[in-house]
Amino acid sequence: MNVHSFIEAEEQAGHSVTRACELLKVSRAAYYARRSGPSARTCDDAELTEKIRAVHARSRGTYGSPRVKAALNRDGTVCGRRRVARLMQQADLTGITRRRRQRTTIPDPKAAIRPDLVLRDFQPNPAGADTLWCGDITYIPTDEGWLYLATVIDIATRRVVGWATADHLRTSLVADALTTACRTRRPTQHVVFHSDRGCQYTSRELASLAGQLNVRLSVGRTGQCWDNALAESFFSTLKNELLSRQSWPTRAAAHTAIFEWIESWYNLYRLHSSLGYRSPADYETTLAA
Q1: Which residue intervals define the domain Integrase catalytic in the entry (predicted)?
Q2: How far apart (Å, rounded) are the C-alpha atoms in residues 215 and 208?
Q3: Cβ(234)–Cβ(151) under 8 Å?
Q4: Contacts of 280 (CB under 8 A, 6+ apart)
Q5: Which of 26, 91, 205, 245 is in the most buried spot, having the most CB atoms within 10 Å?
Q6: Spatial separation of the C-alpha atoms in residues 274 and 270, rounded to whole Å
Q7: Judging by DSSP bridges, how do beta strands 160-166 and 191-195 pair with one another?
Q8: Which of 91, 77, 189 lies closest to 133 in space, CA to CA?
Q9: From CA 247, how far away is CA 52, in angstroms rounded?
Q10: Poorest-confidence range of 5-9, 105-109, 146-150, 157-161?
Q11: Opening angle at CA 95, ends 259 and 29, nearest 5
Q12: Which of 288, 54, 254 is nearest to 165 (CA)?
């Protein structure tokens, strides 16, 4: 007996159709549409569209068809990306498109020369977390003025392991983010922290802190955005999926939204194509297994 036959039998027995649909995860609209005569394919599309809507809403309206398909597959619904794309278009559901961002790098020509220990290798690392980190600074406009955000991202898992905000671009901003990362993760061996050649990252102050934290500093080349591509990509995602979708009256409001997005969504649930459409938390669990 298929799902719709079972629900029909429950209805004939005087039981609640709504309850039967909820238990079998079938929408009432799809059930009645199929019962009234549309083709099985039409009814299947109606059911799948309901599931697509749920995934898209869960993603805060940000997922396009590749991530929606991946999320559906993870939930046990097997379907193709083209079909998902077609149904999303029919339902007027779209993902968020990335935009290019302006840079905040201010190089210091007198800074000490440091090596590039990453060499553009930002692939997830199955050897484990907390060996290679990267970070950068971006800015968020608010009605009170700029809010600056510094990040520390684990290259192996894409997890944001440390971050800080401030109303200035002094070295203490990146120092706070790096200190938070070390206190949160407590790496057991030397960890490399890669950045661009902004003056905050090449300062003596940060070098001194890195020595205390058992961190090796690495920097890319001046003017080469690909040398810190992962950090750039994260900011693009953050701005497209959160910050650019509304205005921010205060720095505190923007900080709170960033906290919720990183800690309650990005690190725990957002699917990453580079991780095989898994979240950073899920991928870390896989590494630890």
Answers
A1: 122-288
A2: 10
A3: yes
A4: 154, 157, 158, 159, 160, 266, 267, 268, 270, 272
A5: 26
A6: 12
A7: unpaired
A8: 189
A9: 28
A10: 105-109
A11: 105
A12: 254
Other C-beta atoms closer than 10 Å to the C-beta of 134 total 25
Tokens 């900080």, located at residue: 255
> Residue 221: CB partners within 8 Å, gap ≥ 6?
116, 197, 227
**CB neighbour list of residue 25: distance below 8 Å, 6 or more residues apart:** none
Going by C-alpha positions, the residue among 245, 222, 12 that lies closest to residue 109 is 222
Residues paired with 133 in a beta bridge: 154, 193
**Residues 6 or more apart in contact with residue 218 via CB below 8 angstroms:** 114, 115, 116, 117, 118, 192, 193, 194, 195
Q: How far apart are the C-alpha atoms of 199 and 206, rounded to whole Å?
A: 10
Per-residue pLDDT averaged across 88-93, rounded? 86
In the block, tokens 């590749």 appear at 66
pLDDT tens by residue, 162-179 = 999 999 999 999 999 999
Question: What is the Cα gyration radius of the chain?
Answer: 24
